[in-house]
């Protein structure tokens, strides 16, 4: 195993050819969430900062090998009607009773899965399992990040119902890639969440309120730019047709800070979920875990995840592919 491959296995990641909210922004969200933590937590998380950051992409990799994974990343709120934000039961058992588990999983379960992950992380803190603490922290951060993406809350998740195919990757990939270095990421300290399930729903509700603006403003801008919205960019030996920088800049300006606000909210929410799980577990001493190193069994699990990701046996939703779709 060469040095690069071994490093990837140690971190539980492999290099990706392009950035999605699931890759670039998820990693940034997790990394910056660490710095919202209090003294009793931050030393352990900072020591494992590389893993927390890079493992943020693990749930996206599993979409290609585990059929039950995909619904954990979204919820098609509008499937349930115009007043769904106010009528969907907030707790899993009541939602199952109203709609059935099959229906919920067919249209996404992200707010309920976030709550489930919170309880799993709390238990990991209670039993003092550093491997589980790190794994669950990284992956909980991923789902919280997804809950902040407007197009993860609608059946029109890739603009396929309005002739805007490719908008998902445009919003969550190209725009952060181009402009997020200029964002203000100071969000203050993590705060205790009195009701984690409600906090998960608040993220979804806030994101869903932005869906109309995301779609409407891009549609108007596309009509104004016409074919001028496209450009060709060369990366390595490949030349690709992409949405131009001028088009991206115009759309980013029209959104008026939306992506920055969503990333900032995600950072604060991720840190607050970690903090709340730790508080609810009795604030265990994490300094005794500072000598933790992954076991060979854990490294083998990470290698297996890499292998399954490469096979990509399962087709995921269109917006979750690794390429930005551009229609001619």
Textual characterization of the structure:
GO terms for molecular function: endonuclease activity; hydrolase activity, acting on ester bonds; metal ion binding; nucleic acid binding. Keywords: Disulfide bond, Endonuclease, Glycoprotein, Hydrolase, Metal-binding, Nuclease. The chain has helices at residues 3-11, 21-34, 39-47, 49-54, 58-62, 84-87, 92-99, 101-106, 110-127, 130-147, 167-179, 196-208, 211-225, 245-255, 258-280, 296-311, and strands spanning 230-235, 238-243. By secondary structure, it is mainly alpha-helical. It has one domain (3-164, 193-208, 259-311): P1 Nuclease, CATH 1.10.575. Strands 1-2 form a two-stranded antiparallel sheet. The longest helix has 23 residues, at 258-280. The termini are far apart. Residues 1-20 and 319-328 have low confidence and may be disordered.
């Amino acid at each position: 195993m060469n040095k690069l491959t071994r490093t990837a296995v140690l971190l539980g990641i492999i290099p990706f050819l392009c950035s999605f909210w699931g890759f670039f922004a998820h990693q940034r969200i997790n990394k910056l969430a660490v710095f919202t933590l209090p003294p009793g937590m931050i030393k352990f998380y900072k020591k494992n900062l590389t893993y927390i950051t890079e493992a943020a992409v693990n749930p996206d990799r599993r979409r290609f090998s585990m059929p039950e994974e995909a619904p954990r990343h979204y919820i098609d709120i509008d499937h349930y009607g115009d007043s769904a934000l106010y009528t969907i039961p907030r707790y899993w058992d009541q939602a199952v009773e109203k709609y059935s588990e099959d229906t919920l999983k067919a249209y996404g379960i992200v707010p309920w899965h976030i709550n489930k992950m919170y309880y799993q992380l709390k238990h990991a803190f209670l039993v003092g399992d550093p491997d589980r603490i790190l794994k669950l922290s990284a992956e909980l951060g991923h789902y919280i990040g997804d809950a902040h993406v407007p197009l993860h809350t609608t059946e029109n998740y890739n603009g396929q119902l309005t002739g805007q195919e490719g908008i998902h990757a445009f919003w969550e990939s190209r725009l952060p890639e181009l402009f997020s270095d200029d964002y203000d990421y100071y969000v203050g300290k993590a705060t205790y969440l009195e009701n984690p399930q409600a906090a998960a729903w608040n993220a979804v509700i806030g994101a869903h309120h932005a869906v109309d603006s995301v779609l409407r403003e891009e549609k108007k801008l596309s009509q104004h730019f016409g074919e001028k919205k496209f450009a060709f960019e060369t990366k390595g030996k490949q030349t690709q047709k992409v949405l131009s920088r001028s088009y991206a800049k115009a759309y980013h300006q029209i959104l008026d800070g939306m992506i920055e606000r969503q990333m900032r909210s995600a950072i604060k929410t991720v840190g607050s979920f970690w903090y709340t799980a730790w508080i609810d577990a009795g604030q265990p001493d994490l300094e005794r875990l500072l000598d933790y190193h992954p076991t060979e069994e854990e490294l083998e699990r990470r290698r297996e995840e890499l292998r399954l990701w490469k096979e990509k046996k399962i087709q995921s939703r269109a917006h979750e592919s690794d390429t930005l779709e551009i229609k001619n």
